Amino acid sequence: MASLNLNQDQQALLQNIASLYDSLSTLPSLLPSPQVNSLFTELVTACIPPSEIDVSKLDMEAQEMRLKLIDLCSNGEGLLENHYSDILASYENPLDHLSLFPYYTNYLKLSQLEFELLSQHVNGMPMRVAFIGSGPLPLSLLVLATYHMTTTRFHGYDREPSATIRARKLLKSDADMASRVEFRTADVMSLTHVLSSYDVVFLAALVGIDKEEKARVVEHLNRYMAVGSVLVVRSAHGARGFLYPVVGSDELKGFEVASIYHPQDEVINSVIVAKKLPSVHAHVHLPGEVAPVQGGLPLRTCCCCEREAIMVSGCKMEELAREELQS
User: Fold this and answer.
1) CB count, 10 Å around CB of 293?
2) Do 250 and 269 form a contact (C-beta atoms < 8 A)?
3) Residue 261 falls inside a structural domain
């Protein structure tokens, strides 16, 4: 497989990834096994090193392979999470054993980065947070709720009933977490007025795999999220775009992008933090409806200016430096 506008190293990377795709796509099952685990590990290892490859500029054949590969990764990740969620649920206190998941350290790092990023752009602790696409093993939500947002209420949404059932079992022996965390079965497109009650909404990387579907999800969130609330979008950069969908800041219509992080280590996902702007779709609250909870969450109003790169916890951040408007 070849693609235009790629240098020799990028062509070699593309060939390697295409070969791994061929191997994964011919497996009878993606259930966790030594062979499956080995192939996915090899794929991730190939995609982690910093690369200037722009997956949006690949030729049609490579683009089709990439989308199919992301779908395979999504299926494999789901099966892996099912497997470990069931293992954890077999313990009397599941949350005491989260480190059994092989990539748990990555989630600790990613959640730390996301919390640091939110702390730079919001004032105070979020009162209500939603995770869209929380999955059967909602590690990011659980880590944030346990270590960073210890008084916040969390709602995890997933369209698969089996994912909701598994996630709920993880809370069975922790009264505090069970009182603050709730998992619900729902497709994001079915969520309307409830979205306006959240201070922060996290959008999982695999909610909306292709560009058009992701755009529909973002437009829906823009229609119903409260003005001033914060959207955290997980994306990918460089060769990591073969593992997860890439979301550009220009695709977040109706949101003002505050920061973009591109990790340089084993944390795969880039993180975009954006503020919901007023729009023609602003929701009018009906009598008796829950009003937006925005306590302590105003992002700095900006008129901007300058882009600078800084390092935060080993993660490169592309920061939109803002000047606060004088009141």
Assistant:
1) 17
2) no
3) yes
Task: Quote the number of domains for the chain.
Answer: 2
Element of type H or E holding 26: none
Tell me, yes or no, whether 201 lies in a domain.
yes
CB atoms within 10 A of CB 92: 8
The structure tokens listed for 10 are 């990028």
The owner of tokens 């590969």 is 69
- The whole model's pTM is what? 0.84
List, in order, residues 6 or more apart from 36 with CB less than 8 Å away. 24, 27, 29, 30, 76
Q: Which residues pair with 158 in a beta bridge?
A: 185
Residues 65, 134: one domain?
no
User: Could you tell me the pLDDT band of residue 6, with boundaries at 50, 70 and 90?
Assistant: confident
Indicate whether 44 and 109 sit together in one domain.
no
81 and 199 fall within a common domain: no
Pairing of strands 255-263, 315-321: antiparallel
Q: What is the DSSP secondary structure assignment for residue 100, as one 8-state letter? A: G
- Answer yes or no: are the C-beta atoms of 249 and 272 closer than 8 Å: yes
Domain membership of residue 314 (yes or no) is no
- 91-101: pLDDT as tens digits: 999 999 999 99
Predicted pLDDT of residue 166: 98
Provide, for the chain, the percentages of residues in helix, strand and coil under a 3-state DSSP scheme, each rounded to the nearest 5. Answer: 45, 20, 40
Same domain assignment for residues 74 and 148: no
Sign of the Cα torsion 119, 44, 155, 100 reads: negative
Which residue type occupies 90? S
Average pLDDT of span 144-172? 97
- List the domain range (segments joined by +) for residue 60: 8-89
